[in-house]
Design goal:
The protein has helices at residues 16-27, 41-51, 67-77, 92-101, 113-124, 132-142, 162-172, 177-184, 188-202, 207-216; strands at 7-12, 32-38, 55-58, 82-87, 105-108, 129-130. It is α/β, with parallel strands linked by helices and 224 residues long. It is elongated.
């Protein structure tokens, strides 16, 4: 570890046995003082405001307020406190929202004491505290090919109508709903209906997924 004073850490995990085990483990690690523990995200946010820890070890799946929302609120309200996620989950739907919310570190619960110390040390020095597994996943994600999938026929995928494909292409171009309405000379309500229908048919949650889908299906070309 780099030379520094004792690091004050808060632990947030909704499972009592797990939380107490992490607190016990941290108590054995050099240069770390556990200043508190929280059973959910809401309590974690309150304790950060009260105790001003250097680092929060944050679980993700918790009641009342999950770890992603708690991380977002902590980083907004007290940017001096760093967040290291410590969770069972390493899937994209857990990893990327947590990082986008402001977490600087991400570990899975099979991490040992040395990994936890290293991640805490990294985030305090301005680096990313990521386990090797998470680093590999990030590398894989950002090196995934964006080559369009060739279509076997002229039929749109997933039962999309021609108009829905037009709307999807405009979304991929970065147009907002009002801009799409003006481009297609239709009402805002009609645009929203087309978007709802194509999202449902293609199993999409948001515009970011829609853009990636359009590229993957060869319905739009990535910039450059």
């Amino acid at each position: 570890m780099t030379e520094r004073t004792v690091t004050r850490v808060l632990v947030a995990d909704d499972q009592t046995v797990v939380r107490e085990g992490i607190v016990m483990l941290l108590g054995l690690l050099p240069g770390i003082e556990v200043v508190g523990s929280a059973a959910d995200g809401t309590e974690a946010v309150h304790l950060v405001a009260e105790l001003a820890p250097d680092v929060v070890l944050m679980d993700l799946r918790m009641p009342r307020c999950d770890g992603v929302e708690a991380t977002r609120r902590i980083r907004l309200e007290r940017p001096g406190t760093q967040v290291v996620v410590l969770t069972t989950y390493a899937d994209d739907d857990s990893l990327f929202p947590a990082l986008q919310a402001g977490a600087r570190g991400y570990l899975t619960k099979d991490a040992d004491g040395d990994e936890i110390v290293r991640a805490i040390d990294d985030v305090l020095s301005g680096e990313a505290g990521l386990s090797p597994k998470i680093q590999r996943r990030l590398l894989e994600r950002f090196t995934e090919p964006m080559n369009p999938r060739p279509q076997s026929s002229d039929e749109p995928p997933d039962g999309l109508t021609t108009r829905e494909v037009e709307v999807l292409r405009l979304i991929a171009e970065g147009q907002s709903n009002p801009e799409i309405a003006r481009t297609l000379h239709v009402s805002m309500a009609t645009v929203k209906t087309h978007i709802n229908n194509l999202f449902a048919k293609a199993g999409l949650r948001d515009r970011a997924q829609a853009i990636h889908y359009a590229y993957r299906q060869g319905l739009a070309q990535p910039p450059g």
